[in-house]
Amino acid sequence: MAMMEKNLTGSTKEKQLVIDSDVHAYFDSIEELVPYCDESLQKRLNIGPFKKKAFNGKVVSSAEFRFPECRYINPLSVLRLDAFAPNGSIPGADPEFVAKDLLDRTNTQYAILNSANATMGAFHNVDVANGFNSAYNDWQYENWCEKDSRYKMSMLVSPLDPVAAVKEIERIGKKPGVVAVNLQTTSIPFGKRNLYPIYEIAQEYGLPMLVHPDSEQSGENSPSQAVGPASTYMEWHTCLGLMAQRNIASLVCEGVFERFPKLKFVFAEYGMGWLPGLMWRLDKNWKALRDEVPWLKNRPSEYIRSNVRLATQPIEEPFRPKDLLEVIQMAGAEDMLLYSSDYPHWDGDEADRVFSTLPKELKHKIFYENALNTYDFNR
């Protein structure tokens, strides 16, 4: 779908309608969650009237709550320095400004919100993680989804507590602004059977699972690089796709998509250039080793094309632009790719610049149609 707009010469041109599958909603301070937390959780998060007091300029208690933190920090800032709101909010923290700066400017019909400064998917204390997730979900729904119907959210759950995750999905999973379930980590194999209750209710509610890089190598997270930790942010960021590959193989080989055929898994911010090789290797090994996985009725690549979706940012940028099209065609991924801006992060992909060399029909699929077929916006 496209709309017409006039350019500077007075002539009209088509402007692509956009669904953005990765927009980050920040809060300026964790204190914003106080109205959504009971007294017990406020104490454990060290917020509100229960915040530890300072004595002579120092915090009295060393038990102050801290989010699990990634070891790798962008030396230039992970946030776009041109996206601060006029009211002084950090980039991504003012829903009204984000609507003007991103949604209006890029003709975005829907934006899927992913948590930004809230990383609890592998936090070691699952009670705190579960309480925080519920508070954050309520905060995001009230302050974003109810303020502008273009905002849709991926709700947070903890994969370390599937029972609590199911209860949280039952609590808010049918709200009209909730369109996905965010597991917040990729450092555990997603094919494991203890996660099946989450998948069962997500399929029942029509909610795709969504995963995104967060605090790898923190909390209960294992290293994101199987051969050991990276030395630099550049190395860590480049190798994020390894986690997506490992988990797609887990989902396929463990038979998750055979058991839950309507379940979609969205991998956001892992790239896609590695996809053909992963498909080829899985298909080749399945031919010889299918006795190990008798539950797989189809080739692994068929499950991947049917049930896996990849948010495009940060899209690979080959020296020859036409090579990107060939990679997409080699993987048969025309229906798998979902445009994402990653606003307001440093390596975001602008809708009016990315995919400029791709055929018009394929661009329409990536920018709009594929997301429309992945998320239920009419909940």
Automatic annotation (TrEMBL):
One Pfam match: Amidohydro_2
- A Gene Ontology biological process annotation? secondary metabolic process
Q: Does the keyword Lyase apply?
A: yes
Highest taxon above the source species:
Bacteria
What SUPFAM superfamilies does the annotation carry? Answer: Metallo-dependent hydrolases
PANTHER family, per this entry?
2-AMINO-3-CARBOXYLMUCONATE-6-SEMIALDEHYDE DECARBOXYLASE, ISO-OROTATE DECARBOXYLASE (EUROFUNG)
Name by which UniProt lists this protein = Predicted metal-dependent hydrolase, TIM-barrel fold
Please tell me the species this chain comes from.
Alteribacillus bidgolensis
Instruction: Provide the taxonomic classification.
Output: Bacteria, Bacillati, Bacillota, Bacilli, Bacillales
